[in-house]
Design a protein that fits this description.
The protein is an alpha/beta fold. The protein has helices at residues 2-16, 21-33, 36-43, 47-61, 77-107, 116-133, 188-192, 214-222, 237-245, 255-264, 293-303; strands spanning 66-69, 72-75, 110-114, 139-143, 156-160, 170-182, 205-208, 231-234, 250-254, 274-284. Strands 4-3-5-10-6-9-7-8 form an eight-stranded mixed beta sheet. A two-stranded antiparallel sheet has the order 1-2. Helix 6 links the parallel strand 3 and strand 4 (139-143). Helix 6 packs across helix 10.
Length: 305
């Protein structure tokens, strides 16, 4: 008696158990095209993989779903019934996914990653202007430098375009990088001479570990020689710029990082600024859509002073 009851229960469970969703997806595509090859192209699989998935489904159901004739396949009566049901089910799921994603985009806060020093010295001091122009649309700012992935919880990234990235990432230029030596105004005569046309060999240079070739890049772009005895290294541009503000030496200053200090007179740039051949970009997983918050941000970033 116990054995018979177990057999009946197993039979009922077997009748209600759903086949593999992957097998159903392969079957639906093959049935829609009545072609394993076209289904394979649509699902980025091989025709053999589609054929095996269909065979597994047929064995699971105990019925032929396709009639195979002269290298062509045709849905059987049972196959047509299942194809209609699977197509309707996948359509319902696809519609639900679209609706959920649309609702999530409406409510989810965009996350913008920006290089730390650029974030502190350029973006945050100007961020209130963007907020006033786009009230009710929130963007969360986070600090991050170098390589990144959009799988790490960020939606957009501002970076200097000097690192390898997946070819699918979309980049929009924000501004070209311009750099120049900066120091305290009262130190200009001592470290740049009376003519203020070159850097004195006695000037202590402040450099950063995050961009160790910045001084050499500036020298190459400006056409000036670089012969200096004293160097002091800091971890980030923010620290080297602060050291320049404190009068410890001459820092190589990217324009967007030092413009506020230069314009206010806290720092001086006796030799001006030159383009070093690089640029800053707004990176996104795909091209931005017109009318989106991401596009509004891009347009604002490209015009902000």
């Amino acid at each position: 008696m116990i054995s018979d009851e177990n057999d009946d229960s197993s039979s009922r469970i077997g009748e209600t158990r759903m086949p593999s969703l992957l097998a159903l997806r392969c079957f639906e595509s093959a049935g829609r095209f009545e072609s394993f090859a076209r289904a394979a192209r649509e699902l980025h699989l091989t025709p053999g993989a589609i054929s095996r998935a269909v065979r597994v489904l047929e064995e699971d159901l105990g019925v032929d779903l396709f009639e195979r004739r002269s290298r062509r396949v045709y849905l059987t009566h049972a196959g047509k019934r299942l194809a209609n049901a699977v197509s309707e089910g996948l359509g319902i799921m696809s519609q639900a996914v679209r609706e959920i994603r649309t609702e999530a985009r409406r409510t989810r806060v965009l996350v913008l990653s920006c290089e730390p020093t650029l974030l502190m010295r350029w973006l945050i001091p100007r961020w209130s202007d963007f907020q006033q122009r786009h009230q009710g649309q929130d963007i969360h700012l986070v600090a991050g430098g170098g390589c990144f992935s959009f799988d790490q919880g960020i939606d957009l990234a501002i970076r200097r375009d000097d690192f390898p990235r997946p070819p699918t990432y979309h980049a929009e230029t924000l501004f070209t990088e311009k750099v120049g030596p900066v120091c305290r105004p009262e130190k200009v005569g001592q470290w740049f001479g009376k003519a203020r046309k070159s850097l004195s060999p006695t000037a202590p240079l402040l450099q950063t570990a995050s961009r160790p070739d910045a001084w050499q890049e500036w020298a190459g772009a400006s056409g000036l020689s670089l012969c200096v005895a004293q160097r002091q290294s800091f971890e980030h541009f923010y620290f080297s710029i602060q050291a320049a503000v404190a009068g410890l030496g001459v820092a190589i200053g990217p324009w967007h990082l030092v413009r506020d200090d230069v314009q206010s007179g806290v720092l001086a740039a006796p030799l001006g600024f030159v383009e070093d051949g690089s640029r800053y970009c707004l990176f996104s997983p795909a091209a931005l859509k017109q009318g989106s918050l991401e596009m509004d941000l891009l347009k604002w970033l490209q015009t902000v002073e």
